[in-house]
Write the structure tokens for this entry.
Amino acid sequence: MLSTMQVLARLRRWHALIAPVVVLPLLITVTSGMGYRLLRDWGGLSRDQVHGLMVLHEGEWLGPVGKSWYVALNGLGLLWMLITGTGLALQGWSRQRGRGRGRPEREESSEEGGT
């Protein structure tokens, strides 16, 4: 059976391995989706004028089968990164809190005689 530290080490390793693979599709999805919405709402552009961004956003450029795979893998990649990233962040926070225990807090120098 794996210890908690071993599981977290494996999660960290897998998180680091998968991150470079999912970053580009996620950036494409986020930037094209934001660009589409902001250009429509704030830029006053028509749906036809920004359709290319929606083609990028939805993965239509990959064809009907590729589009479905793009959306599914993009979603799974995002969920993986969120779940593992949250676990790693919680581990880091608990380590920081654990280090603070047992240490005496430094006293601030008083204004009267402190240096």
Observations:
- The two ends are 54 Å apart (CA to CA).
- The mean pLDDT is 87.
